């Protein structure tokens, strides 16, 4: 009889199609599940199903637009890692092995990426604009109160996604979709789960690099105030970056000390006042600084790891151990190999 530890560490999954759990026959046919998440793109999934009898290929069950919910974990410890819609169906017919059906899709934020638009919004706040765009894409909204009335503003040859991401940067907000609700919230620490991965234990692989080649020590943002008819200039330097990690030697400081000042100049028509210019400059240099240390890793399957959170990596030496920002995650459940999580991380200091 299996021990309690063995039972707890037995990888498992639960899949739902249009609100109903996969049948026992469908679950038995699943060979692989992959869920990929990034901080800056829609999440995606693929499910590979054995289909020698072509039962699922010819079925209407897995039609485009159907809702898929994926839960991964271990026996008695399983959580939802994805909810979205089927986008493509890919049967693969092979002579010397089983036929398979690969089902792929994305979370519903993909609806914001369909086509570029040029249009104006008259006498609306940014919050009103976000609500209107969400509604026309078939999404509900849950958002913080942001923005002031605009007499006139434009979405100029941009996808809805790019336009809303521009607003997210302007107001220091995070945009994401869960089920069919668009969330637009001010950024705050959302790391409710503390995740620690230790080399030689749960951390199975890690490749990391410190590189100052793309770093700058100062950012200048130039905008235009239509009411006053004058330019607006906002600046931020590496000294303005807020320390969010457990180290304080920033890559930009290394550049300044060894190679001299390096300035990035950005012209942005969305900048209309001094506050937005300074905020954008700080945002740009903060994001640029995250190019200093980048790494990729592999751990035992862990549904708690998701983009936008912090993860602590241990036993990597004095320089590269510590806290990292998670940029992307790939969860892979394989019927023969088990459950593994891959991730990419970054930090701006060592």
What is this entry, summarized?
The chain is of the alpha+beta class and 350 residues long. The protein contains 7 helices and 21 strands.
CATH structural fold name of the largest domain: Thrombin, subunit H
Strand content: over 45%
Q: What characterizes the major β-sheet?
A: 13 strands, mixed
* Domain count: 4
Mean pLDDT: 86
Number of helices: 7
- Principal-axis shape: flat
Q: What is the H/E order?
A: HEEHEEEEEEHEEHEEEEEEHEHEEHEE
The assigned CATH architecture of the largest domain is: Beta Barrel
Q: Which class best fits the helix and strand makeup?
A: alpha+beta
Evaluate the radius of gyration: 23 Å
Give the helix proportion (percent range). Answer: 10-25%
Distance between the termini: 48 Å
CATH class of the largest domain: Mainly Beta
CATH superfamily placement of the largest domain = Trypsin-like serine proteases
Low-pLDDT stretches are 1-8
């Amino acid at each position: 009889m299996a021990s309690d530890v063995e039972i707890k560490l037995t990888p498992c999954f639960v899949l739902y199609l249009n609100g109903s759990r996969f049948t026992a026959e469908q679950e038995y046919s699943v060979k692989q599940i992959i869920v990929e998440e990034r901080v800056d793109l829609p999440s995606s999934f693929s499910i590979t199903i054995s289909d020698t009898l072509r039962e699922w290929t010819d079925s209407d069950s897995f039609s485009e637009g159907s809702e898929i919910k994926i839960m991964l974990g271990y026996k008695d410890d399983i959580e939802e890692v994805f909810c979205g819609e089927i986008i493509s169906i890919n049967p693969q017919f092979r002579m010397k092995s089983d036929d398979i059906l690969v089902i792929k899709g994305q979370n519903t934020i993909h609806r914001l990426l369909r086509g570029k638009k040029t249009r104006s919004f008259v006498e609306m706040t940014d919050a009103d604009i976000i609500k209107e765009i969400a509604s026309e894409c078939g999404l509900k909204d849950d958002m913080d109160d942001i923005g002031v009335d605009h007499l006139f503003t434009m979405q100029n040859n941009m996808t809805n996604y790019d336009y809303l991401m521009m607003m997210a940067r302007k107001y220091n907000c995070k945009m994401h979709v869960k089920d069919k609700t668009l969330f637009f919230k001010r950024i705050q620490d959302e790391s409710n789960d503390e995740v620690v991965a230790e080399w030689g234990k749960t951390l199975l692989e890690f490749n990391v690099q410190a590189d100052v080649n793309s770093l700058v020590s100062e950012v200048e943002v130039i905008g235009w105030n239509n009411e006053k008819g004058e330019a607006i200039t906002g600046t931020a330097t590496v000294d303005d970056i807020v320390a969010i990690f457990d180290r304080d030697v920033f890559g930009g400081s290394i550049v300044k000390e060894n190679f001299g000042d390096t300035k990035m100049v950005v012209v942005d028509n969305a900048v209309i006042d001094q506050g937005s210019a300074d905020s954008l400059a700080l945002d740009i240099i903060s994001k640029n600084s995250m190019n200093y240390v980048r790494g990729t890793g592999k751990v035992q399957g862990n549904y708690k790891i998701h983009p936008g959170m912090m993860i602590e990596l241990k036993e990597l030496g004095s320089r590269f151990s510590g806290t990292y920002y998670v940029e992307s995650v790939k969860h892979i459940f394989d019927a023969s190999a088990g459950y593994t999580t891959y991730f990419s991380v970054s930090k701006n200091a060592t």
